[in-house]
């Protein structure tokens, strides 16, 4: 296995490069070339336009928007073109990212939006990533890789379930799944690297995704890149990329920023009016991406994230980590955004779920709540993630008595999570029985075939 930079396909214009900071540096990446990076003053909109001037997985950032009127749930207004439906009753809007792809979660479609074009540009042959047994991220990577003829290797925490359901089933249908004992999984970096080295073999190459992003932002010598690319195309070398758990890298933020830019168009929510955007938070990456988009565009929007998997200290730390990493790649100060200010004040309002609990637990009455909402509005929620954002959007819209602030919920998907709720692990004694049963069946079958013959 060699550690080497892959070639890239993308030509990066010098005006685009002017966005990228030269100050930060990952320990395992090459030094960016300051000479090729002129610093120019950009307006906020120009900054965002240049930041988003890249190839995307989703051909368009468009998504459907549905208005939910609360006191008369039966009268909802699906998929408004013009979203200004005046009503005296409390209402909120749902951004239907759950409809973007049948198998890839809404927020995964956004997180992977900028990632896969770079994976393709770097002629990656294999992607290695990890997640929990019912990881929506692992399933999304598996499906997205298969759609591009790339092999995915998914390291799932714990034991294989007795019956495969939900995202676990999709991961195993589309990707190569390996179950990893919890003690080994605890050191994710080591586990991912070791597996990637194994996939690469003695002649392959392994990179972390952040290296690819860095390389795509700093490449100068495009003709030699192109020659190298041609050489790579003709060989059988494996080029393996590691994507971290939950795709919680800087590149994942770009898709959320693209969504904010889309929603802030004049014919949708516009840039002038106050808006509360509510989202459910696992790693918190989607919420931070929405926050960075809002700050970059200078919008009077607040991002409210419902904490589901960590404490407020954990989320604040993740927010700081992502903002600092973003700043290392993209020069926020060029549009007058001071890092200290946003680190100090934060860009996301992290709030508790209405009924906080250990992650993954479903409380009594929540399936019935999902059932009621599905039957009256046509919107399918899951009790783990999106029900929490729905409840928060409902509360916030009921508080907005003057109706001058719009409340908007981002529906992040999670539909297949519903099918994972019944998952059960095989107990060791059951595993033995099932192996014995299989052997007995094989023996019987052999006997039967003897008789037939
Ligand atoms: C439906 C759904 N919503 C939200 C999240 C959390 O997103 P993030 O990790 O970006 O906070 C997930 C993560 O898997 C999810 O499946």
TrEMBL record:
Assigned GO CC terms: mitochondrion
Alphabetical list of Gene3D superfamilies matching this protein: 3.40.50.1100
Top-level division of the source organism's lineage: Eukaryota
The UniProt record lists the keyword Mitochondrion: yes
Coiled coil: none
Keyword Disulfide bond applies: no
InterPro entries reported in the protein's UniProt record: ACCD_DCysDesulf (IPR027278), TrpB-like_PALP (IPR001926), TrpB-like_PALP_sf (IPR036052)
Main localization (coarse): mitochondrion
A Pfam family per the record: PALP
Catalytic activity from the UniProt record: D-cysteine + H2O = hydrogen sulfide + pyruvate + NH4(+) + H(+)
Cofactor entry: pyridoxal 5'-phosphate
Keywords attached to this entry: Lyase, Mitochondrion, Pyridoxal phosphate, Transit peptide
EC number: 4.4.1.15
Domain Tryptophan synthase beta chain-like PALP: 84-413
Intracellular or extracellular location(s): Mitochondrion
GO molecular function: D-cysteine desulfhydrase activity
Family classification: Belongs to the ACC deaminase/D-cysteine desulfhydrase family.
PANTHER family: 1-AMINOCYCLOPROPANE-1-CARBOXYLATE DEAMINASE-RELATED (PTHR43780), D-CYSTEINE DESULFHYDRASE 2, MITOCHONDRIAL (PTHR43780:SF7)
Protein name: D-cysteine desulfhydrase
